[in-house]
Every structure is written in C-alpha cells, then in structure tokens.
Amino acid sequence: MKTTEVLQNIIELFKSGKVPEAIAIATFPSFDVPANRWSLLNRLLLYISGTRDARGYRQWESVGRHVKKGAKAIHILAPVCVRKKEQPAKEDPEENAPTESPAENPNQQVATGFIPVPVFPVEETEGEPLAYQELPVPQIPLMELAGKWGLSVKAVPGNNIFLGSYSPTSETIELATAEEKVFFHELAHHAHKLVLGEIKAGQDWQQEIVAELSAQVLCRLVGKGAEDTLGNSYQYIARYAKDAGITPVAACLRVISDVEQVVNLILKEDPQNREREDRRQAPGKKENHLQIQERNEQGLQISERMNPKALNSHKAGLNIHTMLVQELPAEMRVKPINNPETLYTMMKSILASD
Hints:
Number of strands: 10
Shape: globular
Radius of gyration: 30 Å
Oligomer: single chain
C-alpha cells in the first residue's frame, strides 16, 4: 500500500469520526531518582541541560559512582529556610491581660529566598551501573535506520513528563515505552529535519502533527490496525490543532505534503525496505532452495517484530519449504530454480505422501 493511499485512509477516518478510543500505553518501570522529587522548575532546568538525572557529589558517592575530573555542574535552585520566630503574646487592652496566641510549631521554617546549588548530571559520572541504565532498547522496526542516520536511541524509565523525546542538537531519541508509534514519531522528527534542513525548537504545532501523522502512516505500513493507536494520534493532533485554531482534519491537510516527504524518505532510506525492493526489481535473478529457506527464516524474524498476526501462516509456509528442501538431493539444493511451477508440483507430491 502506498504512502498517499494510507494517508488518505487515515484522514477519511478522521473526517468520518469513526476513530477508536485512545488506549493506555505501557511505559518502562520508573526508578527512584532524586530529581523526581524536585520542583517543576528544577526538573525543567535538567531537561534543558539534556539530562534526566543529576545529584550532588555525596549523593553520587552513596550509589557507588563518582564525578569525573573536570565535570561541569548544573545549578538548580534550593530554598533558604529559617526557623520562624515565636510570636509574643498579645495583651487585651480592656482586661489588661495577655491573650493566648494560636499554637505554633517551634520547628516551623519559612523560605526567605533561593540559592544556586551545583549538581552533576549522570553523564558526567562513572562507576557502578544504575538500575535504569540497564534498560534494553526495544527491538522495533526501523531501528536499523536510526543507526544508519547516526541517531542515539536510549530506553529511559517511565515518567509523568513524556513517552518519547527527540533532540535535534544531540540527535538523540529517548523512549520511555516500547510502543512503535512513539519511536516512529521521534524518528519522523529527524526525517522532517532532513527534509527541511532544520526544524524549529520547542513544540511547534505543525512539526508535531507532521511527526504524529507520519508515525500513524508507518504503523499501518508495518501491519498495525486502526484499533491500535489511531485514537491516541487523533487526540494528539486535535490538541495541537486547537492551539492553531483549526480542526484536526484541516491541520492534517495543511501538513500533508510534508508528511508524504517524511514517510517516503524513511521508506527510501530504510535498509530492510531497500533490500526488499532490490529483490523485487532484480531482473532474471534466480535463487536456489537454500537461499529461499534462509530468506524465509529472516522473514519469520521480521514477522515476529512487525506483524505477529501473520506469524502462524508464515511459519506454515516455512515448514512446507523446509520439508521440500529435505526431500531434494544435495546437488539440487544449490541449483537455481528455473521453473517456479516445479516448486508447486513438488510440494503437492510431498503433502500427498503424508
């Protein structure tokens, strides 16, 4: 199915209003990181600095890590607190006697200001591995393309801020979930950058809709159905369309050209897709039985990742071809197949003998 056709199908579903409900997306486990208890401002300072975990010198030592020589610190804001002074008892002018003041906590403290406190990002430390650093990167279609483009893909703990992120400066993708659509969204951001030459910093509504719509097209192309994540994409697009003051459908139509360019670039550059295209277009190239069996086994691995629904039929076809190869003499297994009808005839005879 071509990109344009898939894209039109998605927009037609948006127009019809027949959009599935958004589903809950599972994230990787979260870990106890000190920054999770910081204020929103300090967490934003970390995010801007390109890290998710930063701690003081002693805090890193307590988990078996130490700060590298020459490391640069990030400064967060910590409150300066003083103990609240006890209020003197008030006198009643009529009775000329002191009245009781409300009970106060003698240890109560109040913030009088803020001071910068240096903390060091995890990237500037070394030593014992942290639990979240051992999270494996999920095996997702198009991951090979990310490596080809020089992108660093990392798995990060689940959090309440994002499911995925892309940094155009460091060319890094962070994933807090194994959901394919999230990875496709971030990969589409990079493809969009390659198409345009550069992209705007921050959450630009057009760029976000291009990435989300491209991700949904790629989901369809790898075999995910409309019931999977289409509802999530619609909600995401609707939110940014509202910021722009237009409908979700109008927003999609506004960026449809960019989406086609992004998806076509990804499909063109994807090593696995190019390999499949080369095989289809190679004139007169004939394979022997062992080559076909090897290709089928590779295809089985791809099916497990990309389209589990087709897995059983793929296994059945592979088993039949394996039986066929075993029935052939050794010299025939490496001989080019000139007549495809021979395969069909031999399969029939093997099945009949069973």
